[in-house]
Amino acid sequence: MSKHMEVKKEKTSLWIHAFFILFAAICIIPFIIVISASLSNEKDLIINGYSVLPRTIDWTAYMYIFKNPSVIGNAYLVTLFITVAGTFLTVLFTAMMAYALSRPQFKLKKAMTFIIFFPTLFSGGLVPSYIINSQYLHLTDSLWALILPGITNVFYIIMVRTFFKQLPDGLFEAAKIDGANEYRIFFRIALSLSKPVLATVAFLTALGKWNEWYSAMLYIRNPDLYPLQYLLQSMMLKIQSVLKMMTTAPSMTGSMTSMPSETLRMAMVVVATGPMLIFFPFFQKYFTKGMTMGSIKG
Questions:
Q1: pTM above 0.90, yes or no
Q2: 23, 182, 200, 252: most buried, per Cβ within 10 A?
Q3: Family, per the entry (predicted)?
Q4: CB 242 within 8 A of CB 235
């Protein structure tokens, strides 16, 4: 390769790196602005707008959120439990179903594939699922109402099944010759070789469970069982209702300036998304590999 070509290649690589650095900055700056807004004064934010750095540090929004630390702490524990338990069960059941469907010697493979994939063409609706979960399964005011519904996902099953199909059949045959049964092959070989796709499923499931609020709205009545997202939403609705009452009562408008609204929204975003941003780097090295390798074949 000539010197001119090497210089041209280095310049091209420099421009590519500069582009991705700029793109990463564009993705990060909005979240920095959110953090800045959550630490800003409500009146200053309304008058001067958003900025990358807060003009004055004001912890009022966080003081409203953590006014009762035990309530927020309990909501964090509930969310942590449903995230860990829901993720573990989803990954386990998804891997088990995907492994069975990926084995050519499984006699009921076609029938089970039809049973699993056919219901995705239509939906039974909210009312039937609510009746089943509340009246037949008795999941009302139970954390299992936030875990069991949606414990299996057809997209995840397809992705993991495709990954299992790419594993060499010789490994499974050699294990069978050595006397290993299907359970041992599944837990010792298949799962150990499928960390990228399982980590991808785990991350996507954990993200969904962490942001769980809709099922809580339907099935949870006990405030002690509120997950974090639903608790924050309830707090925001109460603040908005108070602000709406203030607009209709002129004598209360003086206290509106101290009532956070925009800064409270931004603080809730930070409180809700912060833990997931911390855990994401640990899944990042598996995420891309799992998504690509699990979608090469159908």
A1: no
A2: 200
A3: Belongs to the binding-protein-dependent transport system permease family.
A4: no
